[in-house]
Specification:
This protein is an alpha+beta fold. The longest helix has 12 residues. The N and C termini lie far apart (29 Å).
Length: 88
Amino acid sequence: MTCSLFKSNIPVSDIDEGMYPDMDFKIPRKNGIEVAREIEVMAPSQKLLMITAYAGIIDPAQKPQNMKIIAKPYDVDELIGMIRNLTQ
């Protein structure tokens, strides 16, 4: 599986702490929470932001500690605030 990282494709296994991958696609045989948990194992302090139309069905206990979730449709000011919070 690859994800978009600053307009280039890299394998998820190559994501390092401090990188900001932007994933926006359906993942075969996995969901976003499963991928986020894999990233958490590889880079435990990596901060993650998931923007999803499925926020209402995500069990908060299943998400990584360093992950924030914004529901689609989202408020742009909320998104900007969340990004600022994650990048500090």
